[in-house]
Amino acid sequence: MKWEKRHIISIKDFSREEIDYVLKKSAEMEERLNHEKTSSLMKNKILANLFFEPSTRTRMSFEASMKKLGGVTIGFDSGEVSSEVKGETIVDTVKIASGYSDVIVIRHPVEGSARLASEHSDVPVINGGDGANQHPTQTLLDLYTIKKEFKKIDGLSICVVGDLKYGRTVHSLTNALENYEADLCFISPQELKMPRTIVKDLEAKGINVKESSKLNVKDCDVVYVTRIQKERFPDPQEYERVKDAFVLDIQALEGIKEDAIIMHPLPRVSEIHPEIDDTQYARYFQQAKNGIPVRMALLALVSDVDF
Amino acid sequence: MDAEKNEEEKNDEKMKIKLIKNGVVIDHIASGRALEVLHILGIGEDYEDEVSLAMNIYSKSMGKKDIVKVENREIKTYEINKIAVIAPKATINRIRDCRVVKKEKVVLPNEIIGIVKCSNPQCVSNKCREPVKSSFIVVQREPLIISCKYCEREAKGL
Question: What's the CATH number for B2-105?
Fold first, then answer.
């Protein structure tokens, strides 16, 4: 496995062995963090955060990760302040940034922009989200959260709830889970079902897939909830009708397994009732926090820093 | 019997399409795609030399096939690569003085660059401001499935 100068663009680029290695190194990084709050693993190194669209968790998490590694960050957090408004191409911006930094994180609303950026950069590029396409570090931290809780991914029953048609995080997570032997249950309104091609691919790989339009999380180990966006519905009344049917509240948890966990990539709006926050099942804030060791591990791996 | 039948088929074909003296014969085109092959070659109403085209003719190996014959025309590698995408079984015969001087099968490359346009308007390969050519990875050859290298959207049966 070669990690030095490797670009992190799509979860599809990773084999199971590579994903498992990232999860192992993330656990080691977390262990390190438990003993020393910061390190100097990436002292004198610079991370360029090129965020052409707003982001809170991903940008802050990369910034915090780099600082915890002893490095510094430069960059911008909106396309409005980049040279894009002056007509500069993504390619030119990336070429400039790669001359100023040791590693780049890019978020851009155009799909495939991170792959294009990686083709023109002398330093590793990490995709922080390219439109509706990929967000690989989110998927890795999702997997890390599951593995941390259950010490395994194989054999678990993972239920994904919400917008399965357009949701970037659920598609990436599902792509990654193709490598494991977990049972999957997709729960969504009819209008937002998981694309057929994804379901067929999973089944072809021997993965047990169930689909439902009723919120029932009784037999699940992991309940992964995503937001149902109003703009996906041509008829606002239809949205009003379905949105409440997919709200996870205390009542919806009836019969849930004792050790089940509830995850969400955040931000949430109303799909998880705040009353869930204080239950033993809620893991979404921990999940967001897990982004730190995972992103620290990735930054160090692609920079060829031993740890 | 088979040899006799093949000879008969060849004669039939000759009757359907005239031999050419110099140029190119594109054979074993998937049936119904001959017009697209002409389009790839840029042959339209202003082409002055002879062009013969036969569609849906009997083929032992393919069931039905199309053939295109173009007089006084060289074929370039990038054109062969384009033809490979829509007619992956096509053969290219270069003709000089009524003889086949070179016969080659088109080969669909593992990566198709600058030929197919991505159907996703949000794909970076459709943003004319960026210096980028469309690029597709061949996921499956038969039936053809390709995946955009950039936005990962799949296209089937081109």
Answer: 3.30.70.140
